[in-house]
Every structure is written in C-alpha cells, then in structure tokens.
C-alpha cells in the first residue's frame, strides 16, 4: 500500500492524499490550493493520476481547501462515490457552486483586462454548472457507523468538532493479505466550543495522517475571544467607526452570529447599546450556509439542541440583517452610520469583503477583526502581520484601522488541543504523518510530541509518496518552484510600491518641482528601494542554491 501526499504537504491548503492498495485507488479529500499566486497556480496543473481510475473519495469536510477540486475531478472523468456526512454533502454542494461562480467571475475579469492588450483568453478552472454536477456523487454516511465500501475496505466517520459535519476518518483496509488501519484527522476542532462537540478521540491506528495548522501556537478560548469581540464592537461604534469582520462563510460566520445572539440573551443592560448597532452578514453563501445549519440541528452539541427544543430560533437577533444583492452590499459603504459587517472571504482575498476593506481599512475610526486562520501569502496574513500598506482590488491601501486577530474563534485546535487529541491513542501508531501546517508549525509540533508523548512524527514537507511495504518516503520536490515564483512576485510588488509612491508624489501639485522637496519623501523612497534590493539578493541566493 502507498500514500501519496499531493496537497496540504508544503502548505495548509490543497488537501489531497492518494491511497493506492493492491485492489483500489482512492482519495482523502481533493481541495483547492489557496494563498500565494504560485500556490494557486497548482490548481491548474494536471492531476498526478487519471481521475477516471479513482474508485472513490473520502471527504472530511466541506471547506474548499478540502473539496474545491472535486468539480475538476468530475470534469476529467471521475464517476465514483464521495463518502462524507450528510451535512458535508449538503454544504459542499453550495460551496462548490459558489467556488465555480468565483472562478467564472475571475476569468471574466482577467479576460476583460487582457483582451484590451491582445493577450490570450483564460478559461475558468471550472464553472458553477460543472460544480452542480458533482452532487449526484455524494453518498452520506452517519457519524459512528461502520460502513463497508467494498468487501476489503471499511470506514467510520467521527465528529471532528471543526465545522458542521466535519469528520475524522477511520479506515480498515485489506491489502496484500493483511488489514491495516489508517486514520485521517481531516481538520480538528478546538475543545469546549459553543456549538459543536469536542473532537472524537481515536484509540488506535497503524498509520495516522494528522493536521497541524496551529501546531506551534496556543490560542485563547472562544469565550475569551467572544468577550473581546463585544468590547471591540462597543469601542469602535462609540467613536463612530465601523467594524469589518472578514469571516469564512461556513462556520466562522455562524459562530459570530451565535456569539452575538448569546450576548443579547444574557445582557439585558447592553441591549440598548446593541440595538443601535446594525449587524450585516454580507455574503450570499454565508446566508445559504446558515439556512443549512438551522436544519441540521442533530449535528450540534447539547446546549444548542436544548435551545432548539425550547423553540428558540437559531442564529437570530433583532438587528441582524442578511444582505443578498450587490446593490444592498454597496449601500453598506454609502451609509456612514457605525455598524458591523461580517463578510467573506475569511482571508480577504476574494468576495465582497474586499470592497468593504477598501472602504474602511484606511479609516482610523474603523476596526478590522480577523477570526480565522490566515494562510501565508493572503491579504489577511499581510494585514495581521502589521504591513502598513496592502493591495486590495489592485489598489494600494494604507492600513490605518485598528487590527485585531481573535484566534479563539478559530475552527482549529491549538497546539494543546492537538496534543490532547493525539494522546487519545492508546499505543503509538507505526507512523504519524504531519500535514496541513506551515513548516514551522509542523516541526515545532513534531518536537513537542516527541518531548511529551515520546512519539516520533514524520513531517511531510513537499509532495511525497510513502510506501508502507518498504517504509520509504520519496519526495517529488515542487516546493522550490513555488518559493521561486513567490520571490519573483515579491519583487513585482516591491516595484509596484515604488511606482505607486512616485505616482502619489507626482500627483501632489507643485511638490515634485518645489525647492523644498520634503526629506521624508526621500526617506520613504529609500526604504522602498532597500526592500527591492533585499528581495533581489534573496532571489540570487535561491537561484544559486
Ligand atoms: Zn477546514
């Protein structure tokens, strides 16, 4: 048997692992690469296998970095079943169609630009229609049920506590005359969440593939983040500002709505204050996902089930508004009154939130609150890292708003929760493969595991294949190519910054021709030139190596 780590190997996104046995070939997830331009280019490269040869897919959950390339797979000949929970099947359907729509819009936008300069037209990765065709392949399996896929492969899906319907997958695979147990963690949720049960502990595995998103960080609890969330809202609104929350349409948005509705329930004193603040969920996808959450009550923890039993409406409070049309979305930025806008995408690289950030990021009265993981290379990551300027919709925007990162809302376990989950194994698995994390997170977590549990972990750093028969890991090596393209892009951004700075300077009447040319402008240009030189030097070292 072989396991090939094709995605979430050198980054957090693009989860896709190919399992080949002596009788079958199947995938664990088939997600989109998200983040830097170089990483996203991988979505357009041919699969490492013939999609028609894949017998089935085991899908851990409906986030697009885990399911986003399924339409591409179907388009290229995959006709097998996609096993996942019922909630995942339902949510993945709308997520994929939304993703198809984004790809169509992106292609349209690029083609509009490139056609004017006579360049080649691009095709969308897949369309909304391609995505809609996938729903026929989803096959729901309930949590906790031992399900026989065929006479030689059995699976069980367990609650992962990550998002509604997310699963930790146990597999019993008969291969070369013996049964091997493989466990795929998918994405693991934090413990003590407001709406979901804790991730299920798994007692045994021969081989384990485990996520490590927050392998090197501990974060505050959801309750602590919830408290700060309200404090930031009141503070911002009091000074006449608007709060913008880039949030994943699936999971984070519903958590935030729930946090606000709980506050409403328990703080009569503050209701007057909150009544004056309108909260807008500006994401059609989030609105649709919220409707699916409402009708899948059996996936929630007891506290939420109790609310529903008592006839309380879920995800509702007085001043909550869901905006649908583009005109309604635009109107939010024309209305000057203080408000809260929750909008996707969560990493601020796509969707309507870009327009809201363009409008509020440069205003000192505003607050921007990030509530989920921000992958390397994304706009969200640049903002939380303290960059003074970011590029949004091709414009260079000055970051003047107050920036917050409330990690307690994260759908991911932090390093302590990951360790707690791993310590649920009664015996050390033969191999533990660490995936779905940045290099530092994976390595730090491997060291922590060794120190505390005494288990050795294999850090997957690049596209690579592990053969169970001869215990060998073969590396394909695409990481270097991604790093190189990232560096060239950095160079392009440095040049763009210098260009924009000069443009701004020339636009101020009289300044460029004035005898008293401002010193600080020269210093700004010098600093930008230094950045450019540094990037060039780093590039030189990369090429030499
Ligand atoms: Zn996820």
Features:
globular, Metallo-beta-lactamase, Chain A, 3 domains, 17 helices, alpha/beta, 545 residues, Rossmann fold, 8-stranded mixed β-sheet, binds zinc ion
Which percent band covers the strand fraction? 15-25%
CA-atom Rg in angstroms: 24 Å
Distance between the termini: 35 Å
Bound molecule types:
zinc ion
Pick out the low-confidence regions: none
Total number of distinct structural domains: 3
The neighbouring-strand order within the major sheet is 6-5-4-3-2-1-22-23
Report the biggest beta sheet as strand number plus sense, adding barrel if it closes. 8 strands, mixed
Within CATH, the superfamily of the largest domain carries the name Ribonuclease Z/Hydroxyacylglutathione hydrolase-like
Classify the secondary structure makeup into a structural class: alpha/beta
Overall form: globular
CATH architecture assignment name of the largest domain? 4-Layer Sandwich
Number of strands: 23
**Treating each run of at least 4 consecutive H or I residues as one helix, how many helices?**
17
Assembly classification? single chain
The CATH first-level class of the largest domain comes to Alpha Beta
The whole-number mean of residue pLDDT values reads 92
Organism: Acetobacterium wieringae
Keywords: Coiled coil, Hydrolase
EC number: 3.1.-.-
Pfam families: Beta-Casp (PF10996), Lactamase_B (PF00753), RMMBL (PF07521)
């Amino acid at each position: 048997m072989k396991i090939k780590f094709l995605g979430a190997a050198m980054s957090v996104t693009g989860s896709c692992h190919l399992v080949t046995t002596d009788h079958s070939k199947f995938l664990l997830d088939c997600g989109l690469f998200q983040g830097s331009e170089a990483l996203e280019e991988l979505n357009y490269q041919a699969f490492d296998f013939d999609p028609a040869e894949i017998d089935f897919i085991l899908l851990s959950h409906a986030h697009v970095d885990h399911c986003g390339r399924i339409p591409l797979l179907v388009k290229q000949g995959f006709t097998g079943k996609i096993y996942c929970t019922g909630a995942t099947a339902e949510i993945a359907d709308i997520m994929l169609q939304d993703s198809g729509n984004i790809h169509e819009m992106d292609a349209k936008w690029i083609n509009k630009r490139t056609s004017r300069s006579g360049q080649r037209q691009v095709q969308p990765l897949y369309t909304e229609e391609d995505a809609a065709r996938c729903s026929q392949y989803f096959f729901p399996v309930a949590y906790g049920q031992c399900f026989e896929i065929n006479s030689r492969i059995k699976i069980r899906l367990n609650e992962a506590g990550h998002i509604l319907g997310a699963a930790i997958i146990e597999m019993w695979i008969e291969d070369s005359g013996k049964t091997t147990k493989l466990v795929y963690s998918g994405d693991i949720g934090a413990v003590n969440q407001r709406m979901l049960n804790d991730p299920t502990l798994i007692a045994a595995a021969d081989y384990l593939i485990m996520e490590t998103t927050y392998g090197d960080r501990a974060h505050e609890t959801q309750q602590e983040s919830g408290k700060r969330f309200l404090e930031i809202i009141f503070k911002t609104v009091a000074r006449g500002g608007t709060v913008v929350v880039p949030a994943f349409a699936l999971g984070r948005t519903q958590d935030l709505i729930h946090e606000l509705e709980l506050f409403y329930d328990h703080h009569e004193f503050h209701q007057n204050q909150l009544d004056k603040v309108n909260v807008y969920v500006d994401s059609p996808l989030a609105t649709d996902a919220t409707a699916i959450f409402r009708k899948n009550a059996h996936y929630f923890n007891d506290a939420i089930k109790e609310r529903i039993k008592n006839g309380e409406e879920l995800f509702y409070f007085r001043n909550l508004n869901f905006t649908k049309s583009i005109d309604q979305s635009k109107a939010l930025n024309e209305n000057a009154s203080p408000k809260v806008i929750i909008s996707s995408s969560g990493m601020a690289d796509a969707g309507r939130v870009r327009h809201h950030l363009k409008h509020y990021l440069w205003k000192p009265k505003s607050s921007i609150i990030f509530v989920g993981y921000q992958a390397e290379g994304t706009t969200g990551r640049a903002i939380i890292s303290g960059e003074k300027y970011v590029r949004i919709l091709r414009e260079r925007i000055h970051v003047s708003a107050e920036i917050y990162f409330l990690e307690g809302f994260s759908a991911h376990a932090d390093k302590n929760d990951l360790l707690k989950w791993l310590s649920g194994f009664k015996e050390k698995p033969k191999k533990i493969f660490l995936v779905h994390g940045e290099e530092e997170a994976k390595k730090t977590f491997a060291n922590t595991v060794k120190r505390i549990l005494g288990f050795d972990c294999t850090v997957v750093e690049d596209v690579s294949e592990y053969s169970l028969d001869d215990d060998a890991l073969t590396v394909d090596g695409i990481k270097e190519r991604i790093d190189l393209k990232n560096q060239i892009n950095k160079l392009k951004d440095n040049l763009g910054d210098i260009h924009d700075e000069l443009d701004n300077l020339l636009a101020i009447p009289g300044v460029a021709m004035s005898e008293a040319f401002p010193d600080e402008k020269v210093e700004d240009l010098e600093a930008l030139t230094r950045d450019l030189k540094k990037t060039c030097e780093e590039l030189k070292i990369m090429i030499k190596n």
